[in-house]
Amino acid sequence: MNLSERLSSVRKRISDATETAGRPEGCVKLLAVSKRKPAGDIRAAYEAGQRDFGENYVQELREKQEALEDLKDLRWHMIGQLQRNKIKYISGWIDSLHTVDSLRLTETLLQRLETSPRDRLLRAMVEVNVSGEDSKSGCRPDELGAILRAAENSSQLSLCGLMTVPPRAEDPQAARPQFDRLRDLRDEHGGVETLPELSIGMSRDLEVAIAAGATWVRIGSAIFGER
């Protein structure tokens, strides 16, 4: 299959899984993870109707944004770990940040947005390490409340959801306990009204994520091929 066909296949998987879960059509959004893929692949996906793209590295994100700046309604999402000293390079124009992982990062982000305001809210999700793996990024579940409180009165930053990356496993269902735990944490901290977004699920386990309540699925290899 070519890229357009793979993208259509992923959209059908999302639609089918949404229907199977008994959830409303269109409630799950597709984030195409384009890290380490050329700008030409992103342009091809854009021409096939995709608008939201996720990148892991600040320098790569900046280079692609410059190469594709003619695509005015393309939306960039930062989904990799963000160092505090790199915030200044992307905070002004990314659409969303999926990896707020500490109180310190939140405070630095708020300071940056206060000194260099955006013309719209920066929507962000808190990454939570629900599995407890040392190799995983994300705050501890018991740190989540303080992070959310730090931004609750901001006019520039909206912490609108949660994100997690489960341990790698051959069985997609192995991710379900982590997804359920993240949903439970959302419910403990204000529920859907406060944290409407759950960024969970990748190429292997998107159906499991949608059954667990995902509103964003982050899909790379199923669209762009293996890296």
DSSP summary, beta strand count? 8
Please tell me how large the radius of gyration is.
17 Å
Distance between the termini: 16 Å
Overall structural domain count: 1
CATH class categorisation: Alpha Beta
Biggest sheet strand line-up: 7-6-5-4-3-2-1-8
The H/E string reads HEHEHEHEHEHEHHEHEH
- Main sheet record: 8 strands, parallel
Tell me the fraction of residues in β-strands, as a range.
15-25%
* Percent of residues in helices: 25-40%
Short description:
This protein has one domain (3-80, 92-224): TIM Barrel. The chain is 39% helix and 17% strand.
Q: What do these coordinates show?
A:
The chain is an alpha/beta fold and 227 residues long. It has a single domain (3-80, 92-224), classed as TIM Barrel (Alpha-Beta Barrel). The protein has 10 helices and 8 strands. The protein has helices at residues 3-20, 39-47, 58-67, 87-90, 103-115, 144-150, 176-188, 191-194, 206-212, 221-224, and strands spanning 29-33, 52-55, 75-78, 96-100, 122-127, 157-163, 197-199, 216-219. An 8-stranded parallel sheet has the order 7-6-5-4-3-2-1-8. Strand 3, helix 4 (87-90) and strand 4 (96-100) form a beta-alpha-beta unit. The longest helix is centred in the first third of the chain and has 18 residues, at 3-20. The model has no long low-confidence stretch (mean pLDDT 96).
